[in-house]
Amino acid sequence: MSEQPTSDALPEYAERVLDVAELIPPGRVMTYGDVAEWLGDGGPRQVGRVMALYGAAVPWWRVVRADGALLPGHELRALDHYREENTPLREASRSADGHVPRLDMRSARWDGAPGGPGTEGDDGGGAHT
């Protein structure tokens, strides 16, 4: 007799997305599209949906929008994490709503290579340079 999944079991795609989120080193980020590309499955919207539904159990602040804008409604919590992890930020312009900084995507984006910040050969480049 085969084992039936429990009601709290995650869909397989969600598990894969969350596994990638856990691989992202502190101080680095991947976009929703980067995660989908890394998995070779789905797209930015599917990854965003997984993160919205299940992302609280992983470092959700490391999976971000491609424009570097902080997640609406979670900006201050994310900013605390970014500052704690020394994630590269760009200061907000005076015209920016709430003067909330953005991620410096050029420096913060992680390409999925083993290691992380400070690893020999890591130039800080992103998945789409």
Secondary structure layout plus pairing:
Blueprint: H1 12-23, E1 30-31, H2 32-39, H3 44-54, E2 63-64, H4 75-85, E3 89-90, E4 102-103, H5 105-108
Parallel strand pairs: 1-2
Antiparallel strand pairs: 3-4
Helix pairs in contact: 1-2, 1-3, 2-3
Question: Brief overview, please?
Answer:
The chain is 36% helix and 6% strand. The chain is mainly α and 129 residues long.
Structural commentary:
With 129 residues, this protein is mainly α. The chain is 36% helix and 6% strand. The chain has five helices and four strands; from the N terminus they run H-E-H-H-E-H-E-E-H. The strands form two sheets. The protein has a two-stranded parallel ribbon with strand order 1-2. Strands 3-4 form a two-stranded antiparallel ribbon. Helix 1 crosses helix 3. Residues 1-7 and 116-129 have low confidence and may be disordered.
**Low-confidence runs:** 1-7, 116-129
Tell me the major beta sheet: 2 strands, parallel
Globular, elongated, flat, extended or rod-shaped: what is the shape?
globular
Helix and strand content put the structural class at: mainly alpha
Portion of residues in beta strands equals: 5-15%
Kindly state the percentage of residues in helix. Answer: 25-40%
Cα gyration radius (Å): 16 Å
N-to-C SSE string, H for helix and E for strand: HEHHEHEEH
Strand line-up across the major sheet: 1-2
Distance from first to last alpha carbon: 50 Å
Average pLDDT, rounded to a whole number, is 84
How many separate helices?
A: 5
Total E-strand runs? 4
